[in-house]
């Protein structure tokens, strides 16, 4: 075994590209371990943790690229050259691109003065500064990056408000502006329903359900998950609502969020009440049922939200396929499960989808564990074993630390799926598959082998393991939903027609008739 | 543009970050503006905070005004060659036991191999030591004053070693009245400034002291109007020089301008012939002349309060030093880097000394690496294509304040050379100035072994931005 360490001074590659290159580099023949990363303190620590220790690494600066290759002695030269090719390819595509690229936002704005929105997905430590520049230049901003301080968020949102600009985020995963999807988003029809969402996959889900009910989306404005906290006070939410209220293309407004801080909820509802437009509000998991305003309807889930919005545009309910819960199916699945198969395990990419399924379970069961549980007694960490009913948001920080989001890289979820299948008390494994811009190119295809393995393990001990899948996507997405659903069905997976139904079906499948 | 008006306008997004988002936008028929972004300041939080303080509108306004003044002076400077004199008689602060050197301050112990070679050679040349061993002892004894050329209105190529009896150019910026100095080219290869110091080197220095210097000085005494060096320089760029690594045209123009006066001096024909043969022996003869031209212009821009324009970049073979207008004489330093480029036969990178010399004053002014596009003939020397050369010069626009209309590059539609390196822009873009330079052998006594390109260390600019933020942005 030979270790090759190469530090390239002043060479910058973004972390996602590096992770994808690392994956390729590790697949090179003869390579036992290849590590590519910028020499940030965190990445150095990662190297130290796997026993890579070298003065050259200690001396490297955050602007330097670190390349570590462990390979069999006789193959190391070939491996280095193969890894160099992988790194070079990025350069070729960047240099070979016909379009101009700009080093700074100011440079881009000077050359392309009609640019009007900046989508920022650089490391969070640098995102606020770039956002400030964009706002000062009069550009709308969407910050996909997380790890931006709440102080910066408030300052940026105040600046945006003063200038009448959007500041979506930080940690804003989705938006659709003028029919164009930004970051993680689905291809949906344009229409008259405007969405403002503090939860990314919740917004995606509502846009997809609206599309499925034949409606369309005028604008989808993301606010970032912290916007409705007491500190940030719904700054972007309020501006977004007012923009949709003034937008002639928007007839109905939908708001989706986890439960806001109480005073923020009151403020947001007040603003919604004043819009004069029909409004549907989904504060997932909130006990509120009355808004106090005649034009503002509170609904408990994403599917009811989409349905209410589509109906508010004047569609006749009798013309819609409502995808009611399939009661015979529930009976059928219950019959297949052994008495000891009492629990649901939910493995989610989408935070809101996890939330919605968890709240459905909590409506019936007390013993619901999760990494996003509010009750500390029921909180599980990323490395904890699952317990009774467990719902994991694998896109949450404790799972994504140092690795890509499961919507891009499903490997961790695949391992977990097979692991859960070994628990004989598990009756149902519920999973979401998120299609659309930004997501994995074939999330179902990459999961099918693990699904088959999970089912085989249960079968080996004489159990039927029910795998329940929900594909968040539309016929217009790439890949389209139909092909993904067909692959799941071929693998023996039961399909839920919405996020809401996924939670309800999972809960009901394991109900033994003795629950409250 | 308000949010509602965005809804009725075509979306024109800028994608700053993940390329896959740009690809998704393209797939939706909305072509995004793509960025080639790197974290500012090399990702260092203190540096970014300092940059942020200088970006506050009220601070930025003061800086813009100061920088305009600074580059205005550079553009207006008119360096004229007024004559030649012995260092002891002309250079401010020069003494019999002073050795000027290139780069930021450095003591004998820390000097690089080639600089030590040059120092010991100079001490022998000056008669202060009998041989190199004795010179080494003397250099370490504390009796010799070491001082950077830049602290004496001077610049020095490579080791920059300048001693009392060496002859120097006297160049006055007639617009602002300041004068700058630099010694004479020893021509290329096995010479003192590259660390060589055997008898052939000492003999050449003696001849330069006894024949070349006096003839050039006498010639310039006959030329009462002086020589307009900026004019010669700008002609040289139009003839394919970048005036750091290629000086074919500049040397021809300079000797053409000097020749009539040399002929009129009282020296013998044999001596005059020796001078012409010496000049013809290397295209580099005018190299120091363009360095001192740049120095005379850049010194005029020094010491302007609130200015973030770089007024000097130089290296001593160990440290790279930067001076900034708004912080006056203060040095910001980082480690000198390895020069990358072709080597003379028989040498490898392992033989090369680190970046050395005050010649980066040319890049500070806007020529040299910044004017690569003017010198397609030497792109091979810097390992690139003609296209790369064009790109180098254009890229330097991203870190400079303006373009010099008096010194232009024909192949870039007569774009003025990029002028006035702005510390803020270097930090923000992560683009480091490009320097064309020569490579000295790492050991004393050998000389030049190649040439190539090099960048300053980012650290020097990081220090500068933090100090600027503390002074200007306080």
What does this structure look like?
- The complex is a heterodimer of chains A (about 525) and B (about 475).
- Chain A is α/β, with parallel strands linked by helices and about 525 residues long.
- Chain A folds into four domains: about 1-95, 2-Layer Sandwich (Alpha-Beta Plaits), CATH 3.30.70; about 100-170, NAD(P)-binding Rossmann-like Domain (Rossmann fold), CATH 3.40.50; about 180-320, 3-Layer(aba) Sandwich (Rossmann fold), CATH 3.40.50.261; about 325-510, Succinyl-CoA synthetase domains (Rossmann fold, 3-Layer(aba) Sandwich).
- Chain A contains 18 helices and 20 strands.
- In chain A, the strands form five sheets. A six-stranded parallel beta sheet of chain A has the order 16-17-15-18-19-20, with helices on both faces. In chain A, strands 11-10-12-13-14 form a five-stranded parallel beta sheet, with helices on both faces. Chain A has a three-stranded antiparallel beta sheet with strand order 1-3-2.
- In chain A, strand 8 and strand 9 form a beta hairpin.
- Residues about 90-100 of chain A have low confidence and may be disordered.
- Chain B is of the alpha+beta class and about 475 residues long.
- Chain B has two domains: about 45-75 and about 300-470, v583 fold; about 80-290, Enterococcus faecalis V583 domain (Enterococcus faecalis V583 fold), CATH 3.90.1710.10.
- In chain B, strands 6-8-7-3-9 form a five-stranded mixed beta sheet. In chain B, strands 12-11-10-13 form a four-stranded antiparallel beta sheet.
- In chain B, helix 6 (about 115-125) crosses helix 7, helix 6 packs across helix 8 (about 200-220) and helix 15 (about 425-430) crosses helix 16.
- Chain B starts with a helix and ends with a helix.
- Chains A and B meet through strand 4, helix 5, strand 5, helix 6 and strand 9 of A and helix 1, strand 1, helix 2, strand 2 and helix 3 of B.
